[in-house]
Amino acid sequence: MLDNIRADLRAHGGHWGAQGFWALVVYRFGRWRYGVRPVLLRKLLSLVYRVLFKIVQVVTGIELPCEVVIGRNFVIDHSGGIVVSGYARFGENCRIRTGVVVGLAWVDDPCAPSIGDNVDIGVGAKVLGRIRIGNNVVIGANAVVVRDVPDDSIAVGVPAVVRPRKAP
Length: 168
What we know:
The protein has helices at residues 2-11, 19-33, 39-60; strands at 62-63, 75-76, 82-84, 89-90, 95-96, 101-103, 114-115, 120-121, 126-128, 132-133, 138-139, 144-145, 153-156, 161-164. The protein is α/β, with parallel strands linked by helices.
């Protein structure tokens, strides 16, 4: 857990006051507690996690449940209005910003997006449903993505239109 927290701090530029870092610390604690034995201690730590989760949610506006699977170098730029479903999956080197929602398209279909490596999600974007976002993808500000996005693409607009990324 501590190695992950140190890596999260580095990913946030060493800014321990970054609210995204706070959310990740609570997230890491929530994941770590699953392996604690005996069961009674784990239940006590689960209570502590739930309290910390709610505090971070209220103070920062970031909802990042410990059921989410995230890769290394996950960065939450800015805070406020960020909601990530517990069913979501993120690859490595992903970045999300203010107002991003990664979640379910329908309450009856509990399946959230699977997001690849090197994905940058812009301010206010909504990524919803049983979809796959490929590697090296940029999702523009306020885009609403409800369909798969292939590798090396840009998704912009409402609903999102997918275009290939131009070579640098």
